[in-house]
Amino acid sequence: MKPNFLANKIVTLFIIFSIFSLSNIAMAFTDTDGKITTVNDYLGKGKFTIVEVWSTNCPACRKHMPSMVEFDGKLKNTQILGISLDTQAEADAVDDFIMEYNIEFPILISNAIEMNIWMQQNSPEGLIGTPTFMIFNPKGELFAMQAGPVGIDQMEKLILSKSKVTATTQ
What we know:
The chain is of the alpha/beta class.
């Protein structure tokens, strides 16, 4: 009986450790300086937040990024957060991308597995591909999400329409 008792304890500890580890994987985002942070640190700060998930080797991301850079700062109630899926091991490629496009908004570095886990915990679906756009209201609640390129005009109109609703209900 002692071997079964010990085996059951080991299995139980393994399961608990696995669940704890998986729940924290999505928390292992880093900023461009390598400091651990989370996506949630940037949400719900009284501004709409556009999150763009991208990769340096994504042609659609490269095509779309200049419009995001141009849009940055256009609406005072909106901030942009970029999330690169290039991993910390490819931080130099991310830095080159940031310099190439003159990106001034915050960029986090992650990978597809971590991003997928975070999205499964915080949105109706997991990661489909890059680019992926998510828009959060000033309270940090997701209200729009789309995989694939999204026009800046569409995002601006959506945010302005939600801003009016928010302004009249408060």
